[in-house]
């Protein structure tokens, strides 16, 4: 897939949803937290579980997070998830002092034939432990990095206010006269 063919997909799946989120008036703090949370949960080392984790986080946090941002960040983090499985596995092995799971073709043959089921289960637990230890740091670092970015983006792409503070025309002057039995008399001069 070349770059010219990749761009329409990228625009449709990432750029357009992000611009839609920004134009609907997301709060910068909420946006930064939501994206950091989506990315952190999106690199969970068990494939296929991240959507459920993000849904659970959205349900627990409610209005404190922005659900579309969490899910978009989760979608974006899929390739990152694949690249972080081995570092999470190695971190878990270091923490537990466990044996080093070999990532060789012989180990793959053992996994495929079912001869390494105990080692595979142990390596999954090590990867989970590595993610559990690293995830608070990942979340904090991402939030600190994303907060200024989200402030800039929200300011740049914020929608125009629906009711301007200045009159629409310098010739329009609206004055309230008095309240009379619930009715308001308005005097317009042009």
Question: How would you explain this protein's 3D organization?
Answer:
Residues 18-155 form the DUF2062 domain. It comes from Papaver somniferum. The chain crosses the membrane at residues 31-58, 70-89, 120-146. This is DUF2062 domain-containing protein. Keywords: Membrane, Transmembrane, Transmembrane helix. It is a single chain. The protein is mainly alpha-helical. It has one domain (10-158). It has seven helices and two strands. The protein has helices at 3-23, 28-42, 50-61, 67-76, 78-96, 105-113, 117-157, and strands spanning 173-180, 183-189. It has a two-stranded antiparallel ribbon with strand order 1-2. β1 (173-180) and β2 (183-189) form a beta hairpin. α1 packs antiparallel against α4 (67-76). Mean pLDDT is 79; it is low at 167-190.
């Amino acid at each position: 897939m070349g770059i010219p063919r990749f761009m329409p997909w990228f625009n449709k799946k990432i750029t357009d949803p992000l611009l839609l989120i920004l134009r609907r008036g997301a709060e910068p703090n909420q946006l930064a937290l939501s994206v950091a949370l989506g990315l952190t949960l999106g690199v969970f080392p068990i494939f296929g579980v991240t959507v459920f984790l993000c849904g659970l986080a959205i349900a627990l946090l409610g209005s404190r997070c922005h659900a579309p941002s969490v899910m978009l960040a989760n979608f974006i983090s899929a390739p990152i998830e694949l690249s972080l499985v081995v570092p999470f596995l190695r971190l878990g092995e270091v923490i537990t002092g466990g044996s080093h799971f070999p990532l060789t073709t012989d180990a793959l043959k053992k996994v495929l034939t079912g001869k390494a089921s105990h080692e595979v289960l142990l390596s999954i637990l090590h990867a989970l432990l590595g993610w559990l230890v690293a995830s608070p740091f990942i979340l904090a670092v991402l939030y600190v990095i994303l907060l200024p970015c989200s402030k800039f983006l929200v300011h740049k792409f914020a929608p125009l206010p629906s009711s301007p503070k200045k009159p629409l025309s310098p010739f329009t002057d609206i004055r309230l006269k008095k309240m009379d039995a619930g009715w308001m008399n308005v005097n317009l001069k042009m």
